[in-house]
Design goal:
two-stranded antiparallel sheet
Length: 138
């Protein structure tokens, strides 16, 4: 009989090792939105380089970052945080921010602080939004 010490551990696959934590992905997107709202207060827009294919050739172009906030008919800002293309539904469809972009910035910074504190409600909502981006095997 072989006398080894056995374990239930398996070697991690390359795919698992390369996957980023969803909370880190959301933190990066949130930081980008904070930068975007600061530039919007100055009357500017935030752009980022995106790779596109034109006539079969790869080209880098500047694309405006889509803000998570908008102004409704009563001139009040609302915000929907997103994970990839999916809305993060914390308690409702959107977050009421207020009449100015500085209030939008304050809400985004509160979200950033909640993420750093690993707020349970926020992290669960992020994980639910992430699960909606995954392929289902049906």
């Amino acid at each position: 009989m072989l006398k080894f010490q056995y374990s239930d551990e398996t070697k991690p696959t390359a795919i698992k090792a390369r996957q980023r934590d969803p909370l880190d992905i959301f933190a990066d997107a949130l930081a980008q939105q904070i930068e975007c709202v600061k530039l919007a207060q100055q009357g500017e827009t935030l752009t980022q380089k995106k790779r596109r294919y034109i006539s079969g050739k790869r080209v880098e172009i500047d694309v405006d970052v889509r803000p998570w906030w908008w102004k409704n008919s009563e001139n009040i800002y609302h915000l929907i945080p997103r994970y990839s293309s999916q809305p993060i539904l914390i308690q409702s469809n959107s977050i009421h921010c207020g009449p100015t972009l500085s209030t939008v910035e304050a809400v985004l910074e509160q979200l950033q602080q909640a993420l750093q504190d690993r707020d349970k409600t926020l992290t669960e909502a992020i994980m639910q939004a992430r699960s909606r981006t995954q392929w289902s095997k049906s």
